[in-house]
């Protein structure tokens, strides 16, 4: 059993943390090495299986990432930007594969993550699903085929507990559209319209966010031309698709050299 790669799950009590723990425990290709939760959380010191309402699994929740990383070969991290930056530095020191699904990362966070990738494998993606990454590829190709007379709008919907907007996946799609068109997304991005905004700027890539209920994740890329529209769509109905993708990335990275990778690399797209 110990020959299987040990996986650490950061943010064990969160929506994705719970799903990731279940996915690793059910896998015959990896083992759960540790589960991390923030200091002071009532799960600390308890068996993670019991925390999830099941039988003990022999892994206690810890608030010490150094202790956790010493037992493992990879960490999967869907937490917060500040926590992810801390985990990136520690994972690089331990030479662990670090799979990052955290969203809301700012340029200063990304710079620190890129620095850590000089010493360890980091796989970072706004979305870990096969379908979304295919959608990214299609978005880039369609954007490249259509000129600026076609307006591009990325529309995303998520549950009412999501704290950042646009979603990481929406930004992936917007970046793909910008690359297809050969423009800079930061320059052409159009978000948060409200009030008298004036006419749409030619060539702008727009973003719209919906928050409500328990929506797992829905993303549309709308290409709107004169008299016709093209809509590329992905709908996620089960959060397990992201957990399976993250575990696939953690296993894929085991024999790779240090560097920054994404799910396109993992999936060979």
Automatic annotation (TrEMBL):
Pathway: Amino-acid biosynthesis; L-lysine biosynthesis via DAP pathway; (S)-tetrahydrodipicolinate from L-aspartate: step 4/4. It is an enzyme of class 1 (oxidoreductase). Coiled coil: none annotated. It catalyses: (S)-2,3,4,5-tetrahydrodipicolinate + NADP(+) + H2O = (2S,4S)-4-hydroxy-2,3,4,5-tetrahydrodipicolinate + NADPH + H(+); (S)-2,3,4,5-tetrahydrodipicolinate + NAD(+) + H2O = (2S,4S)-4-hydroxy-2,3,4,5-tetrahydrodipicolinate + NADH + H(+). NADP(+) binds at residue 38. GO terms for biological process: diaminopimelate biosynthetic process; lysine biosynthetic process via diaminopimelate. Residues 131-267 form the Dihydrodipicolinate reductase C-terminal domain. Its EC number is 1.17.1.8. It is found in: Cytoplasm. Residues 7-128 form the Dihydrodipicolinate reductase N-terminal domain. GO terms for cellular component: cytosol. The active site is at 158 (proton donor/acceptor), 162 (proton donor). Pfam families: DapB_C, DapB_N. SUPFAM superfamilies: Glyceraldehyde-3-phosphate dehydrogenase-like, C-terminal domain (SSF55347), NAD(P)-binding Rossmann-fold domains (SSF51735). Homotetramer. Catalyzes the conversion of 4-hydroxy-tetrahydrodipicolinate (HTPA) to tetrahydrodipicolinate. This is 4-hydroxy-tetrahydrodipicolinate reductase.
